[in-house]
Amino acid sequence: MLDELFRKPFLLKADPSEKSYPSAKTIEDMFSNLVCIIGFHTNFFLPMIKERVESWTEDSEIGDIFTKLAPLFNLYTIYCQSYDNCSGIITNIAKKFPKFAADLNNIEKKKECKNLRLTHHMLDLIQRIPRYNLMLNEILKHSEPQSAKYENIKNALNLMSAAAHKANDRLTESFNDYIICCVKQSSSKYRKKAEFEFSTVGLLKDPDDKIPTAFGISNLNELMILKSATLEDKNSWIDEISNVISTHDASSTESNTVSLHTVMVSLVSVRPNEKAEWIQKQLTLTSENKIMIVDQSKVLPV
């Protein structure tokens, strides 16, 4: 998906002069060593697995394949380590090139993207290593401890564990930066409705007087109202989200992080001729007293 849906279409519009669109080099930098990983799978890993499966017998195994190719799985380690840099490149060029930003937005809206951003799809590649690790673990459970197969699988598992650990750390760090609101579609699938980065998230305890069990989550661009089954559930959610926000703020190195997430003043209460002065005043407050401005159902940046 990353290559066909994102990378190749972007490259078709690449501008060497970078006057209206990012250059091919910048686009390649966005995806780190994706091309190398695709080459590894296309030319080595998948052909070897396919050949083994097609000639499978009772004595066949796959542990030796993972062991033989273990050094090449370090390509995933490189990819994991460059994820933050790639995400930063995407953000920067989307700001610099409106045409690129529009193309990116249009692609992300496609059905195949399942309402997820490019940066989220880039995490799918990182998930492969933990999946391989789980698969090898399952094979090991069903192998005879005294057999040569068992030792080969165990050796392969040990070699893959380090890469899997790094990948899991990367996934945990990435998803810990967001609140993702989803709607359950089936027993195992969810559809994403909205996402909020902790660095700009706001929590509204009582967004609607007519619905006492409602609360809101907002950022500088949108507001989502959620309804709990009971007041007890609502308070539990508010406490949990508040704790996570506080933990994130405490560990954040960003100096401009909004630290208080309860809306205290509505923009409606400020006279039009005093709006600019009032907003400037909020910007001079300490991080503990910063607030977000709400105009009915739309959250505006201070």
TrEMBL record:
- Biological processes, Gene Ontology terms: cytoskeleton organization; filopodium assembly
Q: Taking every annotated instance into account, which residue ranges of this chain make up the domain DH?
A: 1-170
From which domain of life does this come? Answer: Eukaryota
Q: A cellular component term (GO) from this record?
A: cytoplasm
Which InterPro entries does the UniProt record give?
A: DBL_dom_sf (IPR035899), DH_dom (IPR000219), FYVE_RhoGEF_PH (IPR051092), PH-like_dom_sf (IPR011993)
Q: What PROSITE patterns does this protein's entry cite?
A: DH_2
Entry GO MF terms: guanyl-nucleotide exchange factor activity
Stated name of the protein: FYVE, RhoGEF and PH domain-containing protein 4
Q: Which organism is it from?
A: Thelohanellus kitauei
